[in-house]
Specification:
With 383 residues, the chain is of the alpha/beta class. The chain has 2 domains: 38-259, Type I PLP-dependent aspartate aminotransferase-like (Major domain) (Aspartate Aminotransferase, domain 2, 3-Layer(aba) Sandwich), CATH 3.40.640; 264-372, Aspartate Aminotransferase, domain 1 (Alpha-Beta Complex). 38% of the residues lie in helices and 13% in strands. It is built from 13 helices and 11 strands. It is globular. Mean pLDDT is 90; it is low at 354-368 and 371-383.
């Protein structure tokens, strides 16, 4: 390739490597719909000026920042490239190929892939008919498993197990079974429904809590995640930190995010309000969703696949093989496009392809059944 061709190739990549920060159609990855906070952007600009310098050998400054914010000791913290990177490290360091890992079905699609890469045998436990984890069945399956994964809120349904139910499962799981408590979306949960993590990891030393800066903090492109655990497990994960593996820009971005926490809370409140608006409008149209506590809504499979309904909408949503769909909560413009796609289908002639919508559950308050149960069973009172 000639020098000119190299230059043209580089120019082409410069134009395509970065996705747009604001994209109302990007509703498949549960990203924050807004660009980073102004203070974070300013910090990253400062970082670029020193990008010729290596970061810390080990990210001790970032570790202290996270520990202070989480109200734990530094020895309780390990860091990695997103919650996904931390999950992969847990499976590679604390489990042996051939051992079993208990996963809900469906779950975050990364976990089956991580299990395969780590050589673990997945044991799938279906969700109940309302999109909640079957914690009793998961605890039973954990009796001869090395790892159990609990997502709270759950991905993809957004449902939230009660604190009491989670602690009951932890009490039933063998002490040498690691429980991965994935809290990737915890910032979207009402404060009174969040677990006291410092107390939890002190009481249950086999629990590893995973969190990320990719969702509520809007830093998905920086890949910053962390684990909170008792000193023995956290120390094991910290011992596998890659030297120079976390950019100084990540530390600056986290520090700036913590300093601008009031603005961050405003953004989170806006997303939570938009989630409520979207669910209310969908329910008013006869379309039901699970009781999501995350930054997305989940429309269970029932009748015609939702992928067909959104196929011509221009929206990028997360479709599932059984016909369900997960939709990230975006801007009001995004919400209007979602509602338009649904309402166009509802208003189409009954005998046209667009008019054949998935049947709705009965009009009632509370969480709705998932899958075939959506038209059969009343919704439970989850408290």
């Amino acid at each position: 390739m000639t020098s000119a061709a190299h230059t043209d190739s580089a120019a082409a990549h410069l134009g395509s490597a970065l996705p747009p920060a604001v994209d109302p159609c990007a509703l498949s990855l549960n990203e924050n719909p807004l660009p980073p906070l102004p203070a974070v952007r300013a910090a990253l600009v400062d970082f670029i000026g020193a990008a010729n310098r290596y970061p810390e050998f080990l990210p001790t400054q970032l570790r202290k920042l996270v520990a202070d914010h989480a109200c734990v000791a530094e020895e309780n913290v390990a860091l990695g490239p997103g919650a996904s990177g931390m999950a992969m490290r847990v499976l590679q360091t604390a489990a042996t190929p051939g051992e079993r890992i208990v996963l809900s079905k469906p779950t975050f699609e990364g976990y089956p892939a991580f299990a395969q890469m780590a050589g673990l045998t997945p044991v799938g436990v279906p969700l109940d008919n309302y999109g909640y984890l079957d914690l009793t069945a998961m605890a039973q399956a954990a009796k001869d498993a090395r790892v159990v994964v609990i997502c709270r809120p759950h991905n993809p349904t957004g449902t939230l197990e009660t604190i009491a139910d989670v602690e009951r499962l932890l009490a039933d799981v063998p002490a040498d079974t690691i429980v991965l408590l994935d809290e990737a979306y915890i910032e979207f949960v009402a404060p009174q429904q969040r677990i006291d993590v410092p107390r939890l990891i002190e009481r249950f030393p086999n629990v590893i809590v995973l969190r990320t800066f990719s969702k509520a903090y809007g830093l998905a492109g920086l890949r910053i995640g962390y684990a909170l655990a008792a000193p023995e497990l956290a120390g094991l994960l910290w011992s596998m930190q890659v030297p120079f593996g976390i950019s100084a820009g990540c530390t600056l971005a986290v520090a700036a995010s913590y300093q601008a926490e009031a603005q961050l809370e405003q953004r989170i409140a806006h997303i939570v309000a938009e989630r409520g608006y979207l669910r209310t409008r969908l329910r008013a149209s006869g379309v039901y969703t699970t009781d999501s506590h995350a930054n997305f809504v989940y429309l269970p499979a029932a009748g015609r696949p939702w992928s067909e309904i959104f196929a011509d909408s221009g929206l990028r949503v997360r479709n599932y093989a059984d016909g369900a769909v997960r939709i990230t909560v975006g801007s009001r413009s995004s919400t209007q496009m979602v509602l338009s796609a649904v309402e166009q289908t509802l208003n189409a002639p009954a005998d046209s392809p667009r008019g054949q919508t998935p049947p709705a559950a009965h009009n009632r308050r509370g969480p709705q059944p998932v899958g075939p149960a959506a038209t059969r069973w009343p919704a439970p009172d989850r408290g």
